[in-house]
Amino acid sequence: MKTFSRRTFMKATLASGAVLALPTLAFAEGGTLADIKKRGKLTVGTEAAYEPFEYVENGQVVGYGHDVLELMAAKLGVKLEQMNLPFQGLLPGLMSHKFDFVATSVGITPERAKRFAFSQPVGVVRSVLMVRADDASIKRDMDIGGKTVGTQMGSSSQPVADEFEKELKEKTGKGYAGTKLFQAYPDVSNALANKTVDVALMPSNIAAVQMRKQPNAFRIAGAIGQPKLLAWVANPNDLEIRKFINDSFDEFRANGKLAALQKKWFGAPMETPHENYLPAGAI
């Protein structure tokens, strides 16, 4: 049984009058490259909680994605404005033109790909089960039956958790004790550390960062679901923007700048597809 669903969260949020800070944002005022150049500013929405893709350091958004965006802004001859927002507000904000595109690591799913214009993949991750290092009761994926699982609300990991619970029930007759949803992955790690949850389901790159920051506190008990391709997202009415993103990736890949940034942030060049990566029916 879920303790807190996304729908419940949205109802509570609307009832309280809070809308994830989106009403305070200025509109990007357009959806073409000409509009961006006229404004002299490339405005993107980011959830900076996905190290090393995008995260906050000394009050500034940094990471692989930020460096790529700086190259794109320089290519257009404009300044970069990178808004750091909760993940749950990014795609609604995109559809309202509160920014030119979403530059955060969004998992490509068939449902999302029919509604939003995904760019070429910027990375690939697995959904892993992170547990406390001293929890001997969980040694493999099937051991999480009867445990409380935490993950980020609205993320690509949430449906993975739901699907795996169905598999658990079919194979063992027992699902989770509960599912707890949090605003950001670091919150999930904190919940695991303080024993609010027994298992943190999160992307492999986030788990690796959390384990590096808290040595000997956590370990990986397994991976579930399929590998996820991560990409940036343009408004489906702004396909010129998506073409610019993809053309820029192709250009930076050809001149070696993309590989250099991948080596800087990930330690080595990254193998990601740049064709045939969208599911059937995608925009």
Molecular structure report:
- The chain folds into two domains: 33-124 and 229-266, Periplasmic binding protein-like II (D-Maltodextrin-Binding Protein, domain 2); 126-227, Periplasmic binding protein-like II (D-Maltodextrin-Binding Protein, domain 2, 3-Layer(aba) Sandwich).
- The longest helix has 16 residues, at 157-172.
- The protein has 283 residues and is of the alpha/beta class.
- Helices cover 36% and strands 27% of the residues.
- The strands form two sheets. An eight-stranded mixed β-sheet has the order 5-1-6-11-7-10-8-9, sandwiched between helices. It has a three-stranded antiparallel β-sheet with strand order 2-3-4.
- The chain is globular and about 60 Å long.
- The protein is built from ten helices and eleven strands.
Number of strands: 11
Mean pLDDT: 89
- Biggest sheet descriptor: 8 strands, mixed
Low-pLDDT segments, ≥5 res? 1-26
| Helical percentage | 25-40%
CATH level 1 name of the largest domain: Alpha Beta
Structural class: alpha/beta
User: How is the largest sheet built, in terms of strand order?
Assistant: 5-1-6-11-7-10-8-9
Question: Number of DSSP helices?
Answer: 10
Write the CATH homologous superfamily of the largest domain. Answer: Periplasmic binding protein-like II
Which of globular, elongated, flat, extended, rod-shaped describes the shape? globular
Residue share in β-strands: 25-35%
CATH architecture of the largest domain: 3-Layer(aba) Sandwich
Question: How do the helices and strands follow one another from N- to C-terminus?
Answer: HHEEEEHEHEHEEHEHEHEHH
Return the CATH topology of the largest domain.
D-Maltodextrin-Binding Protein, domain 2
Distance between the termini: 35 Å
- When the domains are counted, the total is 2
Write down the Rg: 19 Å
